[in-house]
Write a sequence for this structure.
């Protein structure tokens, strides 16, 4: 039954877009098919292969006023992504295929998901970190590969959702902390083994971006997180407990550059990125990595609330990041609220700002398909509500016109 529904939906897509689910499809085809009453304007070249450099600035960017698909609406500007869980594929496959052309596994590529303690202890010789993908991870990777949806990988170096044994002798919970030298080897093997497994088991999967480091900094800026175990004291980092300096960041990007597929852009990703002191921390590290040729972009998580930040505060941070000359991606957008109209305006503001700066922004990901499955579901932070109902926020975003773009 599910298969039949899926094939009907695919048939409709074939009818409307000629090349369904093909990420390299021409934006011209997509946009033309969706515009009903709008005058046709010159189109940009295809941005769907995620090479933001291919945007032809001599052409005028065009935004279809009438579209019922997020990814089609913004296809001239950036990839439109969502995070998904494995169970989301069972319940939301058609919906995901309709609206999104980028996927981030919500948890399934995080260190605690793919680092394998037993195998590392048995076969790791204290340095060769063993990586295993379980069925949930595999389900998402296969879904992306089968449907030709490019993946945002998330993440390697993170203080959270990372087991303490990874930092201890013999990969054992009862081991002493390892030296930076041992940890370098473990980090290199973690990244190497992950990319090798991805390439071996999903040869047709396109990985277009990866969050190499996530949430390095104190919540409101002021440098790296304090040393400690996040599993024991929330917010602390085992990385800064092992390393006295920023070499784990430099090394992580060095290894990622060495083993990631060439088209995969490497990101420094963080939240509260619009808090000025934190904007500076992220920017300074990004510039250091840029000078070394190791980074491609800055990820703005963008977990927002209608009360804070306002759009001009957000814009200040975005402009600072864009001034780095690096790509910028909005990686985890959600906006908590108690007033749906305010939320709708906030979403519209962010999408409008992003579309207006799309020469520097190659993708915009919302953190979840609909409120029911959001990690912040207590405050309904997404574009769709229960049963994928179209919220005011979705309608506002879909109403953005060329004339709204600054
Ligand atoms: C969240 C997931 O959405 C939850 O399911 C999980 O329980 C905790 O992590 N910043 C990040 C994401 O980089 O990985 C987090 O995702 C949200 C905050």
């Amino acid at each position: 039954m599910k298969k039949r529904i899926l094939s009907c939906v695919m048939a409709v897509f074939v009818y409307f877009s000629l090349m369904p689910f093909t990420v390299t499809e021409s934006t011209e085809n997509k946009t033309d098919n969706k515009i009903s009453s709008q005058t046709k304007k010159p189109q940009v070249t295809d941005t769907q292969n995620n090479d933001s450099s291919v945007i032809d600035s001599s052409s005028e960017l065009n935004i279809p006023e009438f579209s019922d698909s997020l990814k089609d609406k913004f296809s001239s500007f950036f990839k439109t992504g969502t995070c998904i869980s494995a169970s989301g594929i069972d319940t939301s496959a058609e919906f995901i295929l309709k609206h999104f052309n980028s996927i981030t596994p919500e948890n399934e590529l995080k260190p605690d998901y793919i680092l394998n303690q037993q195998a590392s202890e048995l076969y790791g010789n204290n340095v060769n970190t063993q990586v295993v993908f379980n069925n949930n991870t595999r389900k998402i990777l296969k879904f992306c590969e089968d449907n030709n949806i490019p993946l945002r990988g998330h993440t390697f170096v993170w203080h959270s959702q990372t087991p303490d044994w990874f930092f201890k002798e013999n990969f054992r919970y009862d081991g002493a902390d390892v030296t930076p030298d041992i940890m370098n080897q473990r980090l290199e093997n973690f990244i190497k083994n992950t990319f090798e497994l991805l390439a071996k088991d999903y040869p047709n999967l396109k990985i277009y971006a990866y969050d190499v480091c996530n949430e390095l900094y104190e919540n409101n800026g002021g440098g790296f997180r304090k040393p400690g175990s996040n599993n024991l004291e929330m917010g602390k980092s085992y990385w800064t407990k092992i390393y006295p300096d920023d070499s784990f960041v430099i090394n992580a990007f060095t290894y990622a550059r060495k083993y990631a597929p060439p088209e995969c852009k490497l990101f420094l990703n963080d939240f509260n990125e619009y808090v000025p002191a934190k904007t500076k921390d992220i920017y300074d590290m990004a510039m250091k990595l840029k000078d070394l040729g190791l980074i491609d972009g800055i990820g703005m998580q963008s977990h927002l609330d209608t009360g804070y930040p306002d759009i001009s505060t957000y814009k200040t941070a975005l402009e600072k990041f864009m001034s780095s000359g690096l790509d910028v991606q909005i990686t985890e957008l959600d906006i908590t609220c108690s007033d749906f109209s305010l939320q709708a305006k906030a979403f519209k503001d962010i999408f409008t700002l992003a579309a207006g700066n799309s020469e520097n922004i190659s993708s915009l990901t919302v953190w979840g398909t609909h409120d029911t499955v959001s990690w912040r579901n207590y405050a309904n932070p997404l574009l769709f509500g229960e049963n994928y109902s179209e919220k005011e926020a979705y309608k506002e975003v879909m109403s953005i016109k060329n004339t709204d773009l600054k």
Notes: The radius of gyration is 21 Å. Residues 106-107, 214, 271, 301, 332, 375 surround XIL (CB under 6 Å). The chain has one domain: 2-20+36-405. DSSP finds 14 helices and nine strands in the chain.
